[in-house]
Amino acid sequence: MLRTHRRKSVLAAAALVATTMLLTACQGEDAVDGGKSAGATVSDSAAKGKSDDGGSGTGAGSESPSGERGSKSGTVSGKWVGTVSYLAPGKYTVTDANGAEQAFFTSEDTDIEGAGKICGDADGQAATPCTEEELEAAAKKGFGATVDVKDGVAVSIIEDHTDSGNGMGEGEKSGLFSGTLGYMAPGKYSLSRDGNERAFFTATGTVINGAGWICGDAETVTPCTEEDLEAAAKKGSVAVVVKVEDGVAVTIDEEHN
User: Fold this and answer.
1) Which of its termini does the chain have fewer beta carbons within 10 Å around, N or C?
2) How confident is the model at residue 151 (pLDDT cuts 50, 70, 90)?
3) Is it the case that residue 247 has pLDDT exceeding 80?
4) Which of 164, 165, 115 shows the shortest CA–CA distance to 135?
């Protein structure tokens, strides 16, 4: 009887040990599964994070075209005097005496007038209408001109007579000339360019337009007086474009900077 009781006790103990081992094994498997589940959750979270980052990158990328459009629409207006050069079909630059370069476009309405280099005759009293093809060919070599630009597009490109080799003495020439303004005497001024000096006179009917140096400011073209012109000429370093007829200035336009 005692032996039977001990046998039952041993069997019960063995069963308890087996049960304990089984439970431990199950818990271990649950822990492993739990770890896998947690790992998958972290991986999913990381993947989502990369996806979010990618979304931000796309958003940043979408700002770039907008910036490009903004830069392209940043157009300019004004009058520049200098050397015209070719960039691409319908696109040119004008570089002033100080080396500052301004790009501009042409259109079907751009007034192109030559005085020997774009087209026409250097000895002619009036400029000659030229074609876009003639402008492009001349610009590939480079020529001096006055370029009037509005919203990035040239309204007119007028070849400088001075660039065609015509000197201007005291009253024997007419045309459009550019250079640095100088003072000689009351009512008498000079234009200096490339080491050459040309004289001209003013009259009561001479139209003088300033853009910050003769008078006014750089934002608006302002009518100036003869006194303004004389004071600016005495200071020097003022670039102007002068339309001359028989040695007398019809208009004096300060170069827009």
Assistant:
1) N
2) very high
3) yes
4) 115
For residue 5, how many other CB atoms are within 10 A of its CB? 9
User: Comparing C-alpha atoms, which of 210, 183, 211, 208 is closest to residue 197?
Assistant: 183
State pLDDT tens for residues 91-139.
999 987 777 899 999 999 999 998 888 998 766 555 789 999 999 999 9
Quick one: three-class SS letters along 76-139?
Answer: CCEEEEEEEEEEECCEEEEECCCCCEEEEECCCCCEEEECCCCCCCCCCCCCEECCHHHHHHHH
Beta strands in 101-247 (DSSP E): 101-105, 111-114, 128-129, 143-150, 153-159, 175-185, 188-193, 196-201, 207-210, 222-223, 239-245
Is the pLDDT assigned to residue 243 strictly greater than 50? yes
pLDDT above 90 covers what percent of the chain? 31
Q: Rounded to whole angstroms, how far apart are CA atoms 128 and 3?
A: 135
User: Which residues have a Cβ under 8 Å from the Cβ of 140 and sit 6 or more positions away?
Assistant: 85, 86
Q: What percent of the chain is helix, strand and coil (3-state, nearest 5)?
A: 35, 35, 30
Say how many Å lie between the first and final Cα of the chain, rounded.
122
What gap in Å lies between CA 125 and CA 121, rounded to an integer?
9
Q: Is 170 helix (H, G, I), strand (E, B) or coil?
A: coil
The reported pLDDT for the residue numbered 57 is: 34
The pair of three-digit structure tokens given for residue 193, joined into one six-digit string: 């360019």
